What does this fold into?
Amino acid sequence: MNARVKRAMERITETIDADGFRANVGMIVARENGDVLWARCLRNRGWQFPQGGIDIGETPEEALYRELHEEVGLGADDIEIVGRTHGWLRYRLPPRYQRRRANPRCIGQKQVWFLLQLRVDETAIRLDAVDHPEFDHWRWVSWWHPLSDIIFFKRKVYERALTELADFAFPDGAPARQPPQVHALESEQDRRWRAPRSPYRIMRAGSRRGSRSRSKTGRESR
It folds into this structure.
């Protein structure tokens, strides 16, 4: 094991390093056919893979299991770690997204990415596992789809992570990459969730307005 990989597996002693990058884990949850879980953020309506910060004293793998539960309601028994990226993958935040008065100042993220095979039925996926959920909607997309849908400053890191982990997901060869396309509006068939009225309440699509009911699965049943 080279020093670069070893450093990315050690326990974190600082959440933001001397260069201003915050330690983070990214999670690609895949089903058997290679489709991956794609989720929509409550805060900014953007789509992304689940990800989260690594706390001081945690290893990336420990942070992975914590964030996996918090963001999509899955536990260690629900998935299998199939692969991980080597070392840290970094992206910089554009200046307008940086908190200039923060101390220490965070200029971006350094991430370890994990490929996770879902081992249970997809109804185990829950977006309301915690009081303050990160996402309000999720769906399955093809392996390379995120590159045409992710915010611009994360695209290179996503490309590196998907390219590196494709060998684990597709031992016989990854599917061909399609030319980037402008992201279309969701079809009725693909839609699983509608945006909740409150950022801290998840509602099943089609629920009666004002209802207090909550979904147990995080998605509309078929």
Summary: Confidence is low (pLDDT under 50) at residues 182-217. The domain at 3-169 is CATH 3.90.79.10 (Nucleoside Triphosphate Pyrophosphohydrolase).
